[in-house]
Amino acid sequence: MSDATSESTSIKSTPKTIWSNWAGNVECSVTGIFYPKTEAEVQAVIQQAKTEKKKIRVVGSGHSFSPVIATNDYILSLVELKGIINIDKQKKQATIWAGTSIKEANEQLFEAGLALINLGDIDVQSVGGATATGTHGTGITFGNVSTEIVDFTLLTASGELLQCDANTNPTIFAAGRVSLGVLGIVTKITLRLDEAYKLEYTCKAGNFEETLENLEAYNNSNRNFEYYYFPYSETLQLKLSNKSEKTVKHNKFLAHINDVFLENTALEAACRFGVTFPKMYQRISRAMSKSFPKGTKVNYSHQIYATVRNVRFKEMEYNIPMEHFKEVMTKMKAIIEEKQYQIFFPAECRFVKGDDIWLSPAYGRDSAYIAVHVYHQQEHNPYFSDLEELFTQYGGRPHWGKMHTRTAEYLSRNYDKFQDFQLLRQQLDPDNMFLNEHLAGIFGVAI
Ligand SMILES: Cc1cc2nc3c(=O)[nH]c(=O)nc-3n(C[C@H](O)[C@H](O)[C@H](O)COP(=O)(O)OP(=O)(O)OC[C@H]3O[C@@H](n4cnc5c(N)ncnc54)[C@H](O)[C@@H]3O)c2cc1C
User: Fold this and answer.
1) For the chain, percent of residues with pLDDT exceeding 90
2) Using CA atoms, how far apart are residues 272 and 203, in angstroms rounded to an integer?
3) Whose alpha carbon is nearest atom 22 of ligand 1?
4) Mean pLDDT, all residues of the chain
5) Is there a single domain that holds both residue 341 and residue 206?
6) Residue-wise pLDDT tens digits, 136-147
7) Containing domain of residue 31, as a range?
8) In this structure, are 261 and 387 located in the same domain?
9) Which of the listed residues 161, 277, 298, 435 has the most CB atoms within 10 Å of its CB?
């Protein structure tokens, strides 16, 4: 891609090009990608799009699997609008440009003796992108990352800059913390933080039945509990983290063997083997359930949450009401064993506290998340479609950044505030500047 300067504005941009997401399952031919460095430049791109009657999709780091970014018009990237604007140590808060990656934020906050409260399993997403889709980690006493938003600034389709918090523009605040980029462009976000803390992380084997029977105990006695379920195996990979005052216990060589070799290089080799010899799927999955790295390490939180993900995959993830999780999990295992899908990638199960953000999948309910994956070269259906049918029988809500087929008809029945969000979106973006085909289906709008 060559850099050029847009003819109508002086903002750095790339002319007509192909854009694709991290997983490579979404690709689009765009008229231009803009890289504004200031809010004024973002406003100028909005003005140009309005004049030229173009749509804009704002991109973070392109780590969503769903086609939330896909457009033939403009992509606006915030990679140049990054960094920490202000840190308030007293209040334990920081205001961060939305294009900042979680990794960059983690490092700068750590230097100031602070840390993000809870995170997912990678740190390459942008702060704006992670919050826009309700990105979450695990831990039943923590909401998703968006629940830690204290305030944000929104640039709307009319070019207005709106400051939003619980008291100023409270309706936009209630809706805009998980907005999929359809209410406007979030330029900066203030997040609640914790003092820098260490986590003791343990990875060990568990049993399917025993873990489900004792799920409450696992969740209540660990700060962060999650597990991987390997199809065709009774063995689970349990991951438990708790705050710790112990000294950092981190062997770089062992970490490389575990995190890079076993979880990436060996996994890639297993996946390629599985694609070449698809009939070996059960053996591969069982072998994986026996060979994952086990042990304990202690490190600062941001070093524990973030993992390396070099193996490309496709993913669907659903939020399930906590009370239905065990039944759904049991049925999911039965369906997989009955249908014998040729899959060998584990499913990930995590637990999150309910919240009050209108389009957060955890709105109004403590939740479990079930994420299913296939290697990027594998067909994901009927595996994903059969499980989506199961999840939706229990009021499942899709992770907005993962693959799903839900549209307005289903979503309006499963989100109490869906109509309110639709009305607000129409008010803020009457010409549908921030929609693409996928989002038009989600919000039931013809574009
Ligand atoms: C390997 C991998 C691991 C992952 N792990 C997790 C995990 O542990 N937990 C989890 O919940 N999810 C996880 N995800 C999903 C990921 O966190 C989300 O899809 C997230 O939205 C990606 O962030 P991004 O910066 O790449 O956003 P993008 O994918 O670029 O954009 C996502 C959405 O945010 C909008 N957006 C971006 N920036 C702004 C802005 N400034 N203003 C308004 N809207 C904006 C976009 O328009 C789009 O709708 C993972 C994804 C991958 C590929």
Assistant:
1) 87
2) 25
3) 63
4) 94
5) yes
6) 999 999 999 999
7) 4-77
8) yes
9) 435
